[in-house]
UniProtKB/TrEMBL annotation:
<dbReference type="Pfam" id="PF13041">
    <property type="entry name" value="PPR_2"/>
</dbReference>
<feature type="repeat" description="PPR">
    <location>
        <begin position="170"/>
        <end position="204"/>
    </location>
</feature>
<dbReference type="InterPro" id="IPR011990">
    <property type="entry name" value="TPR-like_helical_dom_sf"/>
</dbReference>
<feature type="repeat" description="PPR">
    <location>
        <begin position="237"/>
        <end position="271"/>
    </location>
</feature>
<keyword id="KW-0677">Repeat</keyword>
<dbReference type="Pfam" id="PF01535">
    <property type="entry name" value="PPR"/>
</dbReference>
<protein>
    <recommendedName>
        <fullName>Pentatricopeptide repeat-containing protein, chloroplastic</fullName>
    </recommendedName>
</protein>
<feature type="repeat" description="PPR">
    <location>
        <begin position="29"/>
        <end position="63"/>
    </location>
</feature>
<feature type="repeat" description="PPR">
    <location>
        <begin position="64"/>
        <end position="98"/>
    </location>
</feature>
<dbReference type="InterPro" id="IPR002885">
    <property type="entry name" value="PPR_rpt"/>
</dbReference>
<feature type="repeat" description="PPR">
    <location>
        <begin position="307"/>
        <end position="341"/>
    </location>
</feature>
Amino acid sequence: MCSATVTACEEAGAWQFALDLLQLRLSPDVITLSSAITVCGKGGQWLLALELLKQMPARQILPNVITFNAAISACERGGQWQLSLSLLEELVLARMFPDKVSYSAILSGQSGPWQLASELLGVMTKGRSVPDEISYNAAITAYERGGSQWALALELLGAARESGAGLRPDEVSFSAVITACGRGEHWQQSLALLSQMRLRRLSPNQFSCNAAISACPSLAMRLRLLGHMSVARLAPDEISYSACISSCEAAAAWQLALRLLDTMQGSSFTPGTISFSAGVSALDKGGQWQRALLLLRQMESVRAAPNQISFNAAISACGKLGHWQVAVELLQEMRARRLPPDSISHNAAGSALEKDGQWERALHLLCEMPRLEVAADALSFNAAISACKSCGLWQAAQTLLRKMGEACFPSHDSLLLGTSS
């Protein structure tokens, strides 16, 4: 009865209740304790899971492979990949053979280095546990998380197909490799893999299409893939649209960015912070400061909280056209919202002050940065120096230039000539 109840707790994720039941039972069996360890793992209580495993010999209960697998999974969920490896070693020392679940639990973890995936897959291949689709997918995903390991992810995809074990890479496998290639800026490979999926009668899903869209370097290509999703009856999501809106920024296509946002609002979901921020950035690049402000204000009406990126883009849009009052107000609003302005925020506001010759405010903004623990860079100094120059304050400009040099910040030759005249 207790084993069944603890198992029910496992399904519900009620780890505290499972532990209370164990306190009431004098002689739990291996099934009960294994279920309790699983419950703790799902509840993020990896320390409790290890404690239960440690208590088993004192209760005269021998842990089995299932018990160890539950503890390994608990550690992986808690980001403790080193402990997961230690448990795997303990499993071998106890003369038990790790199975696919043992290895896949570690491979699926988000915390371990990508090199670990390669080593574990090699151990599996040489041992009794033949890697299956889950193992390969977990290893490929680890390579994808590794950043620039696209070639290894691609190689592993080929190895899975040629393993001789009848393995068929699925949508998860391809999506992970497409993402890895995209991050490695090998967009051609990402598109080739998307075509391979269709040839293998694998239906590209949202994840694989989004990975391919994000990998493409141009707006035209991203829009083409977005259109293919609709043709394939795949509903684009916020990631799909946000990737296209981000490209609008680079292409200075702010009108298209607004149309995409309108399309999102007319569909089954509302744009979120990422999409709106990308839209504000596109308007900034297009010199549309009033529209950027309107879009920033529109965010809250649809419960999309403005973030540092959206505020920085709006400040930049105002700054480029010299609307320093609005830029400074936005900077102050960021602080009031407890969104700490960074060097980008300050530099954008400083640029606005410089354009209108507001040298006192520009100097004040620069002097404030160390107190606010914001690192000043060359752009920060240059804005203040230019503001001083425009008002004929050559001595102040030269002092700032000297301070800038002491901090090892570069300067433009024209600025050097201007301050020495």
